[in-house]
Amino acid sequence: MAKKSKTVFVCQECGYESSKWMGQCVCGAWNSFVEEKVLPELKEDTRRRASARDARPSALKSVGTLSYERIDTGIGELNRVLGGGIVKGSLTLISGEPGIGKSTIIIQTAANIASRGLKVLYVSGEESEEQIRLRADRVCSEIPGTLFVLAETNMENVEAVCGEMKPDFLIVDSIQTMYSGELDSAPGSISQVRQTGNQLMRLGKTGNMPIFIVAHVTKSGDLAGPKTVEHLVDCVLNFTGERDQELRILRSYKNRFGTTSEIGAFMMEGTGLTEVTDISATFLENSGENAEGSVTTAIYEGSRPVMFEIQSLVTPASGMGFSRRTSVGIDNTRLSMIIAVMEKKAGLPLGGQDIYVNVVGGIRPEGTGTDLAVALAIFSSFKRVTPDSRTLALGEVGLTGDLRPVRNAEKIVKEAARLGYERIIMPASNADKLKDSLKGCMIAGVRNINEAIRAFGAK
């Protein structure tokens, strides 16, 4: 009598496994369980003997460090985010919303690497070979002869082609379209994404071949599929930006071979993505005129300061019984806290006002260094105070109204002085370290939000 195969119910949202079907998963999702077959496993004693046969501990002091060989992508901003280039044998996961430019930067990278004589294999499960050729004709100046395309979704077939061709660089677009014949579930399911991710990891590590994996995102902007895929790869990149705007920001959320603090800036044009070397000029190109509710601030990303504009609009509420608090680029919870501090510590009656805050250019700054600029932009719009466009503000606002220091303030101030800013409002703890080391730019060191408002209103 044939032995019945074992099945398990897997949640397609979080990957939770259950022996029985459940209407609601532990993650809160409804009707997300799908029945899948369980792959046969070795017995525990057999697996233990096989794993212990060659297991030998090593003294950490005696372990040498490797100098990783990198491949130049031909795109300076991408190299910056990756830490200097693509490491051989590494897996890089790149995600972003549809139409943001993932496939564009991938085909440009593939063409640049292939132009140096390296064999590149572009595996696409979403587009035909003709569609990839049309994009390459549009965004690549020349299509090298060592750039190969393969329209395939079966991972076993991809492994066979790689074993025969032995490419120097592999691209898989996208992992949600790939499937393994060992599983019965549909492509894009939790089990299939996990299985194909493991197969790609073995393929890259054993062949010392770098792999770029394109991944879809959910409605909330998170990576689709199980979190185990993010743990498998060496680098996780995320493409952000508004589809109706030209600017695109590439950020690294995980990088085993470099820093995660660098960002890359690109402009989407008719001929593809072009690099933006002076990102501050892009964000500040229309900020030359003085305007109410507009304050310039800065953050330090990786190895360069980035200046941008924060705008605020404060207007009387429409009388519907509540006030609106809307922000683009700033966390709404952080905005509510800043408004509460302005009401309590600065005495601004903002309860009956609609407040809108926007970060110009579509950038979403991380951290709390932009708090002071948001607060001063709200003050400027509410009191109808027109600030000087050559004034820059940075600092973290605490619940007590005090200002806390920000990191890399000295580098930000030097860049601001180079760009022609004449006055910088910042926490006193940062300003005390800079007064003797900076010339040509007045620094207003303030200790709390009230001092910042007085310095902001001074001409």
Layout: helices, strands, pairs:
Elements: E1 7-11, E2 17-18, E3 33-37, H1 44-52, E4 70-71, H2 76-82, E5 86-87, E6 91-96, H3 102-114, E7 120-124, H4 129-139, E8 147-151, H5 155-165, E9 169-173, H6 190-207, E10 211-215, H7 228-232, E11 235-240, E12 247-255, E13 263-269, E14 272-275, H8 279-283, E15 294-301, E16 304-316, E17 325-328, H9 332-345, E18 353-359, H10 371-383, E19 391-393, E20 396-397, E21 403-404, H11 409-418, E22 423-427, H12 428-431, E23 442-446, H13 449-457
Helix pairs in contact: 3-4, 9-10, 10-13
Structure, described:
The protein is of the alpha/beta class and 459 residues long. It contains 13 helices and 23 strands. It has 3 domains: 40 residues; 208 residues, P-loop containing nucleotide triphosphate hydrolases (Rossmann fold, 3-Layer(aba) Sandwich); 176 residues, Ribosomal Protein S5, domain 2 (2-Layer Sandwich). Strand 9, helix 6 and strand 10 form a beta-alpha-beta unit. Helix 3 packs across helix 4 and helix 9 packs across helix 10. The longest helix has 18 residues. The relative contact order is 0.09. The mean pLDDT is 85.
